[in-house]
Design brief:
globular; 40% helix; single chain
Length: 104
């Protein structure tokens, strides 16, 4: 599953479902898809996500991969790198006072 985040203030962002859900939860939401954040709540969600990333920016956050054998090496991508596009989207939405929505 993929999750696409949208706002009129920024380009759409698409992520693997489990990564997107983890980031949604870091913003203080339940992780349900579809979902939305009203414009007035975007700054708080952005700060929660930034705080979670700041607490451990190098933590690995990888989608579950079922198409690899146990012998295959899977490179780890940090939480800071995974969250950056969503942080930029939320920053633009907060600046322009726009809602943020996500759906698969």
């Amino acid at each position: 599953m993929l999750i696409t985040f949208t706002t009129p203030a920024y380009a759409n962002i698409t992520m693997f479902g489990d990564v997107g859900k983890a980031l949604i939860k870091m913003m203080g939401h339940s992780g349900t898809v579809p979902g939305a954040i009203l414009a007035e709540d975007v700054p708080e969600a952005l700060e929660r996500l930034r705080a979670a990333v700041s607490a451990n920016p190098e933590a690995p956050l990888n989608p579950r991969r079922h198409d690899f054998d146990d012998d295959d090496e899977v490179e780890s991508v940090s939480l800071g790198r995974r969250a950056l596009p969503l942080i930029e989207l939320l920053t633009a939405a907060a600046r322009e006072r726009k809602n943020v929505m996500w759906d698969n």
